[in-house]
Amino acid sequence: LSLIVIIVMFSAVTFLILLRLNALASGLVHSRSHTSCRKSSSYHSSLDAPSLLRSATMDTITEGTGLYTDEDIPATDIAAAARETEANLFRVELDKAGLSKCHGMLHASGCRRLPDLSKLTPSQITSLDTNESDNAIISRMWSDNYNEDNNNNQIADVKLSTIVDDGVYISDQSFNFEVICAENEIYQGRLFTIDQCNQLKRMSEYHAYKVNSGWQGMPCKSIPGFIPTTEDIFRQLFREFYSLFPGTIREGSIQWESDNEPHLVKYNGEAKGAPLHIDTSHRSITMNVLLSDNDDFGGGGTYLQVIDKTIKLEQGEMLIHLGNLEHAGADITFGVRQLLVAFLECEWEDSEQVTGPGL
N or C, fewer C-beta in 10 Å, the chain? Predict the structure, then answer.
């Protein structure tokens, strides 16, 4: 079985490399030059961005369609091709085994290949809290793939956890803000540690298994324990925003745009990114936080038209920009990419806009 898997993966990697080389030869893969911070020469308006938790529609803007080429991954990146093959193979194998519904929770637990199931402990399998049928299949696959010597040799290569409340949250978070473009108030920072990201993914996927395993969008308030776990960090973040936007945000006015904020967004497999759009027609704050490990997906990133640049985050990092800046999401080429997204309203010192009490 292992030999067959190796042959299938090698063939798939070879095929993907040939496809990428062919694209390069055809001139389909190209690069673009970016300026570090410049204003757009023209302004295009659109309706609110289409969020999975918003009912707004949007006018697509055709300018700048070249942003969807993932120029940062070379055509001959064998490692990326291998990850893509592995991700697709894992999904196919789970589908064949009748565990399609379990993909999200097993992935969030750290499994990336079928043999990884053998590295789950019996207590971890129990804590997955799957239904009787899925539990029987997972237990059988665990038994079929378990090899004590091989397991001991490779256990350090796979970090598995089924804990959803492991106390990784700290009372004083450091956000490490960096300025991407001061003129247009675009910033990058770190909201969560890697351990925190992984815990939040487990919380969301274990909940989704019971309510909607094929989810694409989910309000954080619907996930048991999510808000109590993160509210102190968000409270600290909001206080930092007053320093990040000095003299421009009225003290105590920052609040979630709606009761559905913050929310999670998940890309599962190859998917088109969001077209060029704005989130609001007025000044507001948009925040995107990457919860996934960058090795778990291909593509992705937020293109900001005003600086003509695509920002790619590391796991746990956040991108902060004004909601009325035009931006787009780059395509996902494979894998699982999970984001925490939030739309924030506030009162600006140079505006008569009133949002009500906030933090």
Answer: N
- Residue 142 to residue 136: CA distance in whole angstroms: 10
* % the chain with pLDDT above 90: 59
Q: What is the pLDDT of residues 25-51, one digit of tens each?
A: 443 333 333 334 533 333 232 233 334
The answer for residues whose C-beta is within 8 angstroms of residue 257's C-beta and 6 or more apart is 284, 342, 343, 344, 345
Residue 149 has pLDDT above 80, yes or no: no
167 backbone φψ class: left, alpha, beta (φ>0; ψ -120 to 50) = left
- Residue 55, judged by CB atoms within 10 A of its CB (0-12, 13-18, 19+), counts as exposed
DSSP state of 35: -
Other C-beta atoms lying within 10 Å of the C-beta of residue 152: 10
Separation CA 197–CA 110 (nearest Å): 12
Spatial distance between the Cα atoms of 205 and 17, rounded to a whole number of angstroms: 32
CB crowding 194-215: b at 16 or more within 10 Å, else e: eebbbbbbbbbbbbbbeeeeeb
In the chain, the amino acid numbered 225 is: G
Which structure tokens are listed for 98?
């009748």
What is the Cα–Cα distance from 188 to 84, expressed in whole angstroms? 28
120-151: b (≥16 Cβ within 10 Å) or e? beeebbebbebeeebeebbbebbeebeeeeee
Cα-flanking dihedrals φ and ψ of residue 307, to 5°?
A: -115, 0
Containing H/E element for 227?
helix 226-244
Query: How many beta carbons lie within 10 A of that of residue 316, not counting itself?
Result: 21
Would you say 322 and 286 are in contact if contact means Cβ atoms under 8 Å apart? yes
Give per-residue pLDDT as tens, 183-242.
999 999 999 999 999 999 999 999 999 999 999 999 999 999 999 999 999 999 999 999
Token representation of residue 154: 């490779």
Segment 342-349 shows an average pLDDT of 93
